[in-house]
Design brief:
Oligomer: single chain
Strand content: under 5%
Distance between the termini: 78 Å
Structural class: mainly alpha
Length: 81
Amino acid sequence: MSTISSAPVPQGLPGQLLLGGPVAALKRWWMTYLTWRMEQAAIAHLWSLSDRTLKDMGFTRSEIPRVVRGELAEHTPSRLH
C-alpha cells in the first residue's frame, strides 16, 4: 500500500531552506543601510545649497531631513502656489 502526500515539495537547494531566515534578514539590513546612505547623501547635497535655492524649492534648511524622507509633503500644504 502506498501513500500519496499532498504536501508541497520544497524547491531550491537544501542549504537555502536552512539559510532563508538569515539571508532574508541580511537583505533587509542591507536595503535599510543603502536607503540610509542615500538619504544621507541627499541631505548633504541639499545642505550644500544656498538658502535662496532652498526657498525657491519650497522649503527651509530645517526641513531638509523631513523633505528627504518624504515626511514634509504629507503633512503640510504645498507652498508653491
